[in-house]
Amino acid sequence: MDGLALSLLGAAAAAFLAGIGSSIGVGLAGQASTGVIGEDPEKFGKVMLLTALPGTQGIYGFVIAFLILLKLQIIGGEIPAVTTAQGGHLLFASLPVAIAGMLSAIHQGKVCAAGVQMTAKRPEESGKALILGVFVEFYAVLGFLASFLISNGVQVG
User: In Å, what is the CA distance from 137 to each residue of 12, 133, 144, 147, 155?
Assistant: First the structure.
């Protein structure tokens, strides 16, 4: 596999795995939210943020994929020569956001689903539920930062 293919595999992994995790996490929280809103539509505003929160990991993965594609000048440029080593470096640079994003989004969805249930019973505590969901977000941010810093260190062309 040549360097360009490895680089593209890394960009795809970042977007794909983090996106899968986000879709699962948002789905878990959304299922809980739908039940709560069905019983009390006034709680929509309180559960909306909890439902959306696991979606951020997909955004982080997309941003890393986009940065890799920019580095490769695939978007509006002439694609530089990419060695196998450079491609491997970009592939490995994508893994922190891909894996941390996927796993943290799924677990964040579970925490947010539980937070939705808490909000159903005690709406005044919805802020605490959101804070608990943000704790999981921290690890997605670390994965994003690791991928960002590693990929910025790779020179191509």
Answer: 22, 7, 11, 15, 29
